[in-house]
Design a protein that fits this description.
alpha+beta, four-stranded mixed beta sheet, two-stranded antiparallel sheet, disordered N terminus
Length: 83
């Protein structure tokens, strides 16, 4: 998947050159963000403003990348404190 592919309305990925492609992606569900990892070492952080934007990008990513290219960030969990 080329870096210059549009994934959500109004947001395009960073283009270093025309041959840079996404090698992998880290999906952070808690922050509704994506870290795109380029095959030439470039990284691009994409943060979604709405749940709809996040779901659009998530659907695009899961349909266009192989399972071994997709990684999920650890969930941010805080235990409940009892007083």
């Amino acid at each position: 998947m080329p870096y210059n592919t549009k994934v959500i309305k109004g947001i395009t990925t960073h283009t270093m050159n025309n041959t840079e492609c996404v090698q992998g992606i880290v999906i952070d569900i808690c922050s509704r963000s994506f870290l795109l990892l380029g095959d030439q070492g470039d990284e691009k952080f994409v943060e979604c403003d709405t749940i709809d934007e996040f779901m659009n990008v998530l659907n695009y990513v899961t349909q266009n990348l192989e399972d071994d290219q997709i990684e999920y960030a650890d969930l941010a969990v805080s235990p409940f404190l009892h007083k």
